[in-house]
Amino acid sequence: MTNYTILVNGRSYDVTVQKKKTLADTPISTGKTVTPMAAVQPSLSAGGDGEKVTAPMPGKIIEIHVHEGERVKKGQALLIMEAMKMHNPILAANDGTISKLFVKVNESVQSGQPLLSIGT
User: Which of 5, 12, 24, 107 is most buried (most C-beta within 10 Å)?
Assistant: First the structure.
Protein backbone atom coordinates (compact mmCIF):
# COMPACT_ATOMS: atom_id res chain seq x y z
CA MET A 1 0.00 0.00 0.00
CA THR A 2 1.10 3.52 -0.75
CA ASN A 3 -0.05 6.71 0.97
CA TYR A 4 -0.68 9.90 -1.01
CA THR A 5 -1.90 13.40 -0.27
CA ILE A 6 -4.17 14.74 -3.01
CA LEU A 7 -5.25 18.34 -3.46
CA VAL A 8 -8.76 18.71 -5.02
CA ASN A 9 -10.36 22.16 -5.40
CA GLY A 10 -8.11 23.57 -2.71
CA ARG A 11 -8.86 20.77 -0.18
CA SER A 12 -6.24 18.26 0.90
CA TYR A 13 -7.11 14.55 1.13
CA ASP A 14 -4.95 11.71 2.48
CA VAL A 15 -5.51 8.47 0.55
CA THR A 16 -4.07 5.00 0.71
CA VAL A 17 -3.77 3.06 -2.55
CA GLN A 18 -3.50 -0.68 -2.69
CA LYS A 19 -2.21 -2.25 -5.89
CA LYS A 20 -4.63 -4.73 -7.44
CA LYS A 21 -3.71 -7.70 -9.57
CA THR A 22 -4.22 -6.78 -13.21
CA LEU A 23 -3.89 -8.33 -16.63
CA ALA A 24 -0.89 -6.09 -17.28
CA ASP A 25 1.40 -9.11 -17.65
CA THR A 26 -1.02 -10.92 -19.96
CA PRO A 27 -0.61 -10.37 -23.70
CA ILE A 28 -3.67 -8.47 -24.90
CA SER A 29 -4.43 -7.27 -28.39
CA THR A 30 -6.76 -4.50 -29.45
CA GLY A 31 -6.20 -4.93 -33.16
CA LYS A 32 -5.48 -7.71 -35.57
CA THR A 33 -2.25 -8.82 -33.98
CA VAL A 34 -1.93 -12.43 -32.89
CA THR A 35 -1.92 -13.37 -29.22
CA PRO A 36 -0.85 -17.02 -28.81
CA MET A 37 -3.05 -19.20 -26.65
CA ALA A 38 -1.82 -22.19 -24.75
CA ALA A 39 -2.09 -25.45 -26.63
CA VAL A 40 -5.67 -26.61 -26.51
CA GLN A 41 -6.08 -29.75 -24.50
CA PRO A 42 -7.98 -32.16 -26.71
CA SER A 43 -10.73 -34.40 -25.46
CA LEU A 44 -10.93 -38.02 -26.54
CA SER A 45 -13.42 -38.64 -29.30
CA ALA A 46 -15.50 -41.71 -29.84
CA GLY A 47 -15.09 -43.90 -32.87
CA GLY A 48 -11.29 -43.87 -33.22
CA ASP A 49 -11.08 -40.51 -35.02
CA GLY A 50 -8.32 -39.39 -32.67
CA GLU A 51 -8.45 -36.55 -30.20
CA LYS A 52 -10.87 -33.70 -30.85
CA VAL A 53 -9.58 -30.14 -30.53
CA THR A 54 -12.43 -27.94 -29.31
CA ALA A 55 -13.05 -24.19 -29.35
CA PRO A 56 -11.85 -22.62 -26.09
CA MET A 57 -14.43 -19.80 -26.42
CA PRO A 58 -17.11 -18.58 -28.84
CA GLY A 59 -15.69 -17.00 -31.98
CA LYS A 60 -15.24 -17.18 -35.74
CA ILE A 61 -12.77 -19.28 -37.73
CA ILE A 62 -10.76 -16.89 -39.92
CA GLU A 63 -7.88 -19.11 -41.13
CA ILE A 64 -7.23 -22.84 -41.34
CA HIS A 65 -3.55 -23.78 -41.65
CA VAL A 66 -3.92 -27.57 -41.96
CA HIS A 67 -5.79 -30.12 -44.06
CA GLU A 68 -6.94 -33.68 -43.49
CA GLY A 69 -4.07 -36.15 -43.63
CA GLU A 70 -1.40 -33.55 -42.74
CA ARG A 71 1.18 -34.39 -40.04
CA VAL A 72 1.41 -31.76 -37.28
CA LYS A 73 3.83 -31.19 -34.42
CA LYS A 74 3.06 -30.19 -30.84
CA GLY A 75 2.74 -26.39 -30.65
CA GLN A 76 2.02 -25.95 -34.37
CA ALA A 77 -0.72 -23.44 -35.26
CA LEU A 78 -3.71 -25.36 -36.61
CA LEU A 79 -6.10 -22.50 -37.23
CA ILE A 80 -6.79 -18.90 -36.27
CA MET A 81 -9.96 -18.08 -34.39
CA GLU A 82 -11.22 -14.52 -33.91
CA ALA A 83 -12.81 -13.88 -30.53
CA MET A 84 -13.48 -10.47 -28.99
CA LYS A 85 -11.63 -8.78 -31.90
CA MET A 86 -8.48 -10.80 -31.18
CA HIS A 87 -6.87 -13.31 -33.52
CA ASN A 88 -6.10 -16.41 -31.46
CA PRO A 89 -4.03 -19.27 -32.87
CA ILE A 90 -5.24 -22.70 -31.83
CA LEU A 91 -2.15 -24.86 -31.31
CA ALA A 92 -1.65 -28.62 -31.48
CA ALA A 93 -1.32 -30.18 -28.03
CA ASN A 94 0.43 -33.28 -29.45
CA ASP A 95 2.14 -34.62 -32.55
CA GLY A 96 -0.20 -36.44 -34.92
CA THR A 97 -2.13 -36.43 -38.17
CA ILE A 98 -5.22 -34.33 -38.90
CA SER A 99 -7.93 -36.95 -39.24
CA LYS A 100 -10.98 -34.69 -39.61
CA LEU A 101 -11.79 -30.97 -39.98
CA PHE A 102 -15.18 -30.03 -38.53
CA VAL A 103 -15.15 -26.30 -39.41
CA LYS A 104 -14.68 -23.98 -42.40
CA VAL A 105 -13.32 -20.44 -42.77
CA ASN A 106 -15.86 -17.76 -41.70
CA GLU A 107 -17.83 -20.27 -39.62
CA SER A 108 -18.96 -19.18 -36.16
CA VAL A 109 -18.24 -21.63 -33.35
CA GLN A 110 -19.34 -22.01 -29.75
CA SER A 111 -17.19 -22.81 -26.74
CA GLY A 112 -16.48 -26.55 -26.63
CA GLN A 113 -17.46 -27.14 -30.26
CA PRO A 114 -15.14 -29.61 -32.05
CA LEU A 115 -12.83 -27.86 -34.56
CA LEU A 116 -10.76 -30.81 -35.78
CA SER A 117 -9.41 -34.14 -34.64
CA ILE A 118 -5.80 -35.30 -34.47
CA GLY A 119 -4.98 -39.01 -34.73
CA THR A 120 -1.68 -40.74 -34.21
Answer: 107
